[in-house]
Write a structure and sequence with these properties.
Blueprint lengths: L21 H10 L14 E2 L11 H7 L10 H14 L3 E5 L2 H12 L5 E4 L4 H9 L3 E4 L20 H11 L6 E4 L12 H13 L4 E4 L3 H11 L8 H10 L3 E5 L10 E5 L5 H11 L10 H13 L3 H20 L12 E5 H4 L9 H13 L1 E2 L1 E3 L1 H4 L15 E5 L7 H16 L7 E5 L10 E4 L1
Parallel strand pairs: 1-10, 3-4, 5-6, 6-7
Antiparallel strand pairs: 2-8, 7-8, 9-12, 11-12, 13-14
Length: 456
């Protein structure tokens, strides 16, 4: 067979990209207060800010949209999606929300209280934000290798079981449940092994704590298990997925990732212990339990997308795409989180800007440089996103300074990735001219979305 892995789809509709010059981008970034979140999408050439809700839907999904039942209560679209989700997860109760952070908000409001503590491999930004907003401590317990970008290991998303058990022993009264994020977005899109999922579930059960998974990228995690974990080489992806879910008591999902849709999310629960409270909070925050913030057409598109997202040809291509860009960066001497994750490549900004002090936010600076040089929009996962300004004016800093280039599903072609590799290599060559930034304005929570900056 040929070595080239082609896109397992054909393009049926196209959207033009507006080309910009460097001089234009300098003005646009300055007007955005050096925050790429504030740029207009039309001013971005390659938009890798996020893979959340930014992909292309299939012809089957667009056809399903026309069948959407927009009834307020009891729409058939809800029951169609409910059956799909029950078949995939094996869980009895499905609660729709408009996106993942809403699922987190609804569940945490129902189950958590101020002073609680929730362990996870790594909480991503909205998960942490929702917990901390409620006064809950969000504790990251990823294995040490998960914080070492250059170290190659097959499952760098694994949770540190010994550390979690120590926390359960000391702080058990504060812990309403344990979480696990698959794949681990904060740590480079790294997968969690089935063995680790199974062992974590057993540990939580030993201490009488429910197990909740964040499953935004469950299909990608399942593909990594198939490719890397002994005993799963010949197991179909849906079977791997069902086993993953079998160990959990519930899950939250932003369906805008492996659900292959532009909007949507949900909670699933195995038992009805929390169900009444969750549905009551859903009605207050999102909507009636059979639509929960989603239109009927969105429910239909998600029912198709969840199944398409588990297609092995698609998953093999998607994981290979990240690997391909990683190889190009390796040739250019650019460091990144190894091995590449499922949905993104995470550049290690410290390898490009080794002399820039962390107080000048090197990953943020690199993000700006990629936009200025080639119109590429990524996202900083470093000390702006996960650091904090304390009451005395001092700052805390993150352990890693990463720039995530997250790839929308079924949207960009190989030439886009080749172009991006050239831009990144050029930025590395010009590293001495890259300027750091300082924060001039920031909110209390999730500051990276709206903070404003100036050049140092």
């Amino acid at each position: 067979m040929p070595k080239t892995l082609i896109e397992p789809f054909r393009i049926k509709s196209v959207e033009p990209i507006r080309m910009t010059t460097r001089a234009e981008r300098e003005q646009l970034l300055q007007a955005a207060h050096l925050n790429v979140f504030k740029l207009r999408a039309d001013d971005v050439l390659i938009d890798w800010l996020t893979d959340s809700g930014t992909g292309a839907m299939s012809s089957r999904q667009w056809g399903a949209i026309m069948e959407g039942d927009e009834s307020y209560a009891g729409a058939r679209s809800y029951y169609r999606l409910e059956k799909v989700i029950q078949d995939i997860t094996g869980m009895a109760h499905f609660i729709p929300t408009h996106q993942g952070r809403a699922a987190e908000k609804v569940l945490f409001t129902a189950v958590c209280k101020k002073g609680d503590l929730v362990p996870n491999n790594c909480h991503f930004d909205t998960t942490r934000g929702n917990l901390e907003y409620m006064g809950v401590e969000a504790l990251d317990c990823v294995e040490a290798v998960g914080l070492q970008p250059a170290t190659i290991a097959p499952f760098k998303g694994n949770i540190d079981l010994a550390r979690v058990e120590e926390v359960l022993q000391k702080e058990g009264a504060r812990i309403p449940f344990g979480m696990l994020t698959v794949t681990n977005n904060t740590g480079g899109g790294q997968p969690v092994s089935m063995a680790n999922i199974r062992a974590y579930a057993a540990l939580l059960k030993k201490y009488g704590k429910p197990f909740i998974m964040d499953v935004c990228r469950f299909a990608e995690n399942a593909m990594f298990i198939k490719m890397r974990e002994s005993g799963y080489e010949n197991t179909p992806i849906p079977d791997i997925v069902r086993e993953m879910f079998s160990y959990a008591d519930g899950a939250t999902m932003s369906a805008k990732k492996d659900g292959m849709v532009n909007i949507g999310g949900f909670i699933v629960l195995r038992s009805d212990e929390w169900l009444d409270e969750v549905r009551s909070d859903l009605i207050m925050m999102e909507g009636f339990p059979t639509y929960g913030g989603m239109a009927g057409r969105d429910l239909e598109a998600l029912a198709v997308g969840l199944q398409e997202g588990m297609d092995e040809d698609y998953l093999r291509y998607r994981l290979r795409t990240a690997e391909y860009l990683g190889e190009k960066l390796d040739e250019a001497g650019v460091g990144f989180v190894r091995p590449t994750g499922g949905h993104a490549v995470y550049i290690d900004a410290k390898t490009v800007l080794p002399d820039m002090p962390v107080a000048h936010y090197p990953a943020w600076a690199l993000c700006n440089a990629l936009y200025l040089e080639g119109g590429i929009r990524g996202v900083e996962i470093g000390s702006v996103m996960f650091g904090k300004r304390l009451q005395d004016g001092t700052e805390t800093y993150h352990s890693m300074e990463l720039v995530r280039l997250a790839f929308p599903r079924r949207m960009y072609t190989q030439s886009h990735f080749d172009y991006a590799a050239e831009v990144i290599a050029e930025v590395k060559e010009q590293a001495a001219s890259i300027r750091g930034v300082k924060i001039t304005k920031q909110p209390k929570f999730l500051r990276h979305f709206t903070a404003e900056f100036d050049w140092v």
